[in-house]
Amino acid sequence: LSTAANSAAWVVHTVPGFPTARTPYSWPVAENARGHVLICLTISKSQINAIGSSRFHNIKDVTKLKIL
To answer: How far apart are CA 51 and CA 68, in angstroms?
Structure first.
């Protein structure tokens, strides 16, 4: 995605049915409205403000943002 030494890309993507589950799982239909994506990242302290700012500009419905 990039050839720069100090560059990165954050790509979040899903592929239905991949990987194949080892055991069956179920997701209650009633919970669809409450689905979440949780991503853990390790970033340098100097980049926190830039990342936070870009997330507010790119996300149309930010309901909660917590930086630990």
So the answer is: 14
Residue 14 and residue 6 in contact, taking contact as beta carbons nearer than 8 Å:
no
Q: Is residue 25 part of a domain?
A: no
Nearest in space to 47 (alpha carbons), one of 24, 22, 67, 66: 67
Cα 56 from chain centre: 13
pTM of the model: 0.29
Residue 11 inside a domain? The answer is no
Contact predicate 29/19, CB 8 Å: no
Q: Give the number of residues written for the chain.
A: 68
Domain that holds residue 50: 37-68
pLDDT > 70? residue 8: no
